[in-house]
Design goal:
The complex is a heterodimer of chains A (112) and B (113). In chain A, a hairpin with a 7-residue loop joins strand 9 and strand 10. In chain A, the strands form two sheets. In chain A, strands 2, 4, 5, 6, 9, 10 and 11 form a seven-stranded mixed β-sheet that branches. A four-stranded antiparallel β-sheet of chain A has the order 1-3-8-7, with no helix packed on it. Chain A has 112 residues and is mostly beta strands. Chain B is mainly β. Chain B contains no helices and ten strands. In chain B, a hairpin with a 6-residue loop joins strand 4 and strand 5. The termini of chain B are far apart. Classes of the chains: A mainly beta (112), B mainly beta (113).
Chain lengths: 112, 113
């Protein structure tokens, strides 16, 4: 089944550690996105990519970086994790010209 | 003023009630008005969307947009416990490019059996 997968699903780490969250999709979509979700703040866009050579900052990109390794893979890195990056992280995809976004199951990240 | 405002709730209603979920927005360039539903521990999924002003009905769900007042509504008739979820509004601009990828904070809805 076409799908958006995220690894890991849960991660606990310590302040200062480097963390990578990975997203893969089998939908054949060109566009990929990273969001974080916090209670009371909703979904906020971190980075998005409209194709392999296109990377754009979103609303809250400070402290994060991304890599689009292939059409199907989009990784999010926290170079030096801090406690206020504790959140639920979602990857999403969409096809060009189609506004529906398809979300992965999320990664729950805790930074101690 | 934030681009999209949505009351986070929680909103608790008895089974069978009519539910009204609402958002307001500030950007008059928004043309598509989407509603996503998110169950606990899951990613959001598109429930339905409308284009420009007017109503759209899909089963027990009706989406309504009033562009003159920048007000978006989702109505759920004959609400069921399975409708318990967080509902996020997501208005979008027309055209390509950066799609104004903003979501409302989401309203947590609880349907009591």
């Amino acid at each position: 089944d076409a799908d958006v997968t995220q690894t890991p699903r849960n991660r606990i780490t310590k302040t200062g550690k480097r963390i990578m969250l990975e997203c893969s999709q089998t939908k054949g979509h060109d566009r990929m996105y990273w969001y974080r979700q916090d209670p009371g703040l909703g979904l906020r866009l971190i980075y998005y990519s409209f194709d392999v050579k296109d990377i754009n900052k979103g609303e809250i990109s400070d402290g994060y970086s991304v890599s689009r390794q292939a059409q199907a893979k989009f990784s999010l890195s926290l170079e030096s994790a801090i406690p206020n990056q504790t959140a639920l992280y979602f990857c999403a995809t969409s096809a060009a010209g189609v506004r529906e976004q398809f979300f992965g199951p999320g990664t729950r990240l805790t930074v101690l | 003023q934030k681009e999209v405002e949505q009351d986070p709730g929680p909103l608790s209603v008895p089974e069978g009630a009519i539910v009204s979920l609402n958002c307001t927005y500030s950007n008059s360039a928004f043309q598509y008005f989407m509603w996503y539903r998110q169950y606990s521990r899951k990613g959001p999924e598109l429930l339905m969307y409308t284009y420009s002003s007017g109503n759209k009905e899909d089963g027990r769900f009706t989406a309504q947009v009033d562009k003159s007042s920048k007000y978006i509504s989702l109505f759920i008739r004959d609400s069921q416990p399975s409708d318990s979820a967080t509902y996020l509004c997501a208005p979008r601009r027309s055209g390509g490019g950066a799609d104004g990828l903003t979501f409302g904070k989401g309203t947590h809805l609880i349907i009591q059996p």
